[in-house]
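Hi R.,

Here's the chain you asked about this morning:
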Amino acid sequence: QVQLVESGGGLVQSGGSVRLSCAASGRTFRSYAMAWFRQASGKEREFVAAIIWSGGNTYYRNSVEGRFTISRDSATNTMYLQMNSLKPEDTAVYYCAATGQDQNKYDYWGQGTQVTVSS
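And here is the predicted structure, written out as tokens:
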């Protein structure tokens, strides 16, 4: 079982920056990929960014490309999301996720952290 704990959310002004962290723990963490998703109030959850744990390849949704950077620290099993030039439409609960035995499915989820961007 893998446990994921997010931190780093909060209230920030439009144009500001926030860095989210996701610490993974549990029996021999060996996920193929980890990702960030977000869910705004009244909307469906959406993909934000993903990183392949071993190779470091990264993927982003179009609306955050160039503003957000996903990264990981293999030594501490921690994933990060650096969010710059934030916009009010980035306001959401951000969740980290990790794949399990199926590399195409995110089986493990964190509890979420709120990011609110004021205009």
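One quick note: The chain has a mean pLDDT of 94.

Cheers,
M.
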